[in-house]
Queue: 2 jobs
Job 1
Amino acid sequence: MAYTYKYPRPEVTGDCIVITKEENPKILLIQRGDNPYKGCWAFPGGFMEMDETTEQCAIRELKEETGLELSGPRQIGAYSKVDRDPRGRTITVAYLFMVDEPLPVVGLDDAANAEWWPLSALPELAFDHKDILADALKLL
């Protein structure tokens, strides 16, 4: 299916916030293997394909970047700050997944690494992921 538009269009991404239900919760982060923010930590996520929803995109990207297959996320919200991604105009829809405990993960695709981090000791996050995390924690 080809698309031709007179005006520029933003890119759309799906991001995954995966948190454990433990007494001391952990969150799944990937270490970015590519620019922008190469080497920094971020949520698993990526660009939406033309034939999928933002939820399907988030689920696919989670599997592609960490090997983790989850379903039934809760939408946190849409994030559209004009400068949130230095590559260009990008809007993301973020989804919250809850798991009982850390599951096996590995850095795949464009993720150099994937690790579970204690919520109490997070590294600095890429993009606007700190803001997204704050909204996710409000839902808990």
Job 2
Amino acid sequence: MSPPILQSRLPFAPWMDPRTARLPGILPVEGDDWLRVDDAFAAQMAERDRLVAEKPGLVAGMLDSAAPAAAELLADVLDHLRRTPGYVVGPGAVLRPDGVTVALDGPVMAVLAQLVQEDLCLMEKAGEEHVLTAAALCFPASWWLSEKLGRPLLGIHVPVPSYDDDVARRVQRLFDAIRPGQMLWRANALVYRDPTLHQPRREADPRTDRRGGSYVRSERQVLRRLPVSRAVVFSIHTWVVDIATLSAEELAGLEEARL
């Protein structure tokens, strides 16, 4: 069994801040802090490469209607990477900080899955709601991409009890209001027994009991709107750390929050 892919620490403990401890817990992004490179970059990217090679249909998907938004997203990511230390963006390929070259001529969402640590989801307005139209999802936390494609926000979050109609309405208003050039973020955290990054789960499958786990898994989720397609990008950067890396204060707060 391969050793777990872990970061050395959490950059932010969402359960410790009252602004982020409750849904939806949205805060503005400072500057251009959208995509991050952390100390697990090489190991996470190697795992993403493996998943795209071995399970392409499970980790990348797109409705035909999403092709323009996906192309815009790729251009947007490449523009960001040109300003990111360690990346070299060429006309047909990108050299990552870990020394791996990624060709840009493959399926768009699969290419995106191999460029950055973040999973990337595209949400486009259909009627009164935003629906999931494309995603590069290598590190799902108990959801299955093919089940969620084409679904609106509330349908995506089935069967999450805390994501009810009221939260869905508030999040939909947020999706409607977000402007190009504006970025918002939130974070979550849960205790896991299994530190594996790739944990897909169908809605009908039972959820594994996480109580007594030795790892904390946290997602930093950023929302931004693409200016041309008007699609909303939902990015997910995943940290998994050994619970022993938390401070005494953070550990006490985690136990109190019963995550």
